[in-house]
Amino acid sequence: MEHEQRSQRRPSPSSDAADMVTLLAPRLSYFAAVARTEHVTRAAQELNVPQSTLSRAMVRLEQDLGVDLFARHGRTVSLTPAGRTFLGSVERALGEVEKAAESVRADADPESGKVAFGFLHTMGTETVPGLIRAFRADHPRIRFSLVQNYGEAMLERLRAGELDLCLTSPVPDAPGLVARRLDEQRLRLVVPEDHRLATRKRIRLAETADEVFVTLEPGYGLRRITDDLCAEAGFKPRIAFEGEEAETLRGLVAAGLGVALLPPPAVPRPGVVELAVTGQRAVREIGVAWLDGHPDTPPVAAFKKFLLSRRGRLLPEQTGLE
Predict the structure, then answer these.
(1) In sequence order, what E strands does the chain have?
(2) How is the chain split among helix, strand and coil, in percent rounded to 5?
(3) C-beta atoms surrounding 121 within 10 Å
(4) pLDDT for res 322
(5) If we measure between CA atoms, which residue out of 38, 117, 88 comes closest to residue 302?
């Protein structure tokens, strides 16, 4: 490599760091190979690029940095002190890139890749474990990153690329998302066991207009459904407590602090009575959502296909009230 006078072309103090990365990144692996072999010809053979291309790349790299990275000795080169300093950082950076590449390849592996899957808190006790168990009967090595949250928060993470799929309710109808209805749950009016309505089996929601309710916080899908059903029944619910989990609400009901509209529990809870709601379609629809136009890795595609195949039988059979 011929020694060339360093050009005056240097990054100005105001150069953006991202511009510098864009400028230097394509030549870093070339630099590491020349530094390792201390010979341009051998490095070019190792990289399978023309020697002239490699020589020009190193000259441009030094020009862009504004420092000499190599001392030239005929056909061989050696690192300058600046070159040795630069090499340490370059090797760490290339190592991180290699690790990142290995990670994304592993996550996309058809046999052992990863699915980032979000779901509602109320589906974490029974529904999701059962789904994953059934799916892994045919895909035993697929890994899952599981996120429990309320619907809007999961959709935000879906849009941010942090989730591949999510089970949510209501089934979203929003730009940039694709959603498919999979199943529905009948909602029940949950009352304390000593409540005036506890001897009933069924009730019209309009009969609870004077009751105090405990509900999920605004932003939760079940809260929206509760508000809508009460409005349809002709009243606005008086809310005493707002929570983040359905089972916490059941505990508040058992403590006599109000009534609640909730999906069936995984395990019956003492201290409450659950009534069928009649006169209205008191259900919450469950659906799966994903980003429109977002390419699926093989494990995500397999799990999506599995979920869609469970349409109408996604949830455990509901027992008790009809």
Answers:
(1) 70-73, 76-79, 114-119, 143-148, 165-168, 177-186, 188-192, 202-204, 212-216, 238-243, 260-262, 272-278, 283-291
(2) 40, 25, 35
(3) 17
(4) 41
(5) 117
Amino acid at 231: A
| Pair 146, 128: CB distance under 8 Å | yes
pLDDT tens-digit series, residues 28-66: 999 999 999 999 899 999 999 999 999 999 999 999 889
Torsion angle in degrees (nearest 10) through CA of 236, 237, 243, 246: -110
Cβ proximity of 253 and 260 under 8 Å: yes
Q: How many CB atoms lie within 10 A of CB 129?
A: 12
Q: Is 246 helix (H, G, I), strand (E, B) or coil?
A: helix
Could you tell me which residues come within 8 angstroms of residue 65 by beta carbon, excluding any fewer than 6 positions away? 24, 86
Strand 114-119 relative to strand 165-168, pairing? parallel
Task: For residue 125, give both structure tokens.
Answer: 């006790």
| Dihedral, 146, 148, 149, 152 alpha carbons, nearest 10 | 40
Distance CA 297, CA 134 (A): 20
How far is Cα 110 from Cα 301, in angstroms, rounded to an integer?
Answer: 9
Q: What is the DSSP letter of 35?
A: H
Contact 276, 318 (CB under 8 A): no
- pLDDT digit string (tens) for 180-230? 999 999 999 999 999 999 999 999 999 999 999 999 999 888 999 999 999
DSSP SS3 for 218:
coil
Q: DSSP letter at 123?
A: G
- Residue 238 token pair: 């008086």
For the question of whether the overall pTM of this predicted structure is more than 0.85, the answer is no
The structure tokens 């990365």 sit at: 21
Nearest to 247 by CA among 317, 319, 157, 148: 148
Tokens representing 184 are 């529905």
